[in-house]
Every structure is written in structure tokens, then in C-alpha cells.
Design goal:
The chain has one domain. It has two helices and two strands; from the N terminus they run E-H-E-H. The chain has helices at about 10-20, 35-40; strands at about 1-5, 25-30. A two-stranded parallel ribbon has the order 1-2. The longest helix is centred in the N-terminal third of the chain and has 13 residues, at about 10-20.
């Protein structure tokens, strides 16, 4: 399964990437929503999970 991580904090992206890759997932990253929209159009069959820390 492929997962896209979107977060403006590089540390968070790296931690999630390492954890998910250890679990066998294929991971892509985006540091903002605008970039993620363009990636999402290419990989539209992905599942979405959201964690927000406001």
C-alpha cells in the first residue's frame, strides 16, 4: 500500500516515513497541501488518514 505524508514539519515527516516503511508501506511526502494535490491526482487510488495538530 502507498501512503502520502503531508506535513510542513520535516521531523514529523521523517519519523512517520521511517515507521511506515518499517511496516512495509511505500511512502511519499509533501510539505504542503498545494503540492499534495498534484501528487494526489497522480496517485488517486490511495487511502487517506489524517492527523492534525492545530
Amino acid at each position: 500500500m502507498k501512503i502520502l505524508i503531508i506535513d510542513d514539519d520535516e521531523t514529523i515527516r521523517v519519523l512517520f516515513r521511517q515507521w511506515l516503511e518499517r511496516e512495509g508501506f511505500e511512502v511519499s511526502e509533501a510539505d504542503n497541501g498545494n503540492f499534495s494535490k498534484s501528487v494526489g491526482k497522480v496517485h488517486s487510488n490511495r487511502r487517506i488518514a489524517s492527523y492534525e495538530n492545530l
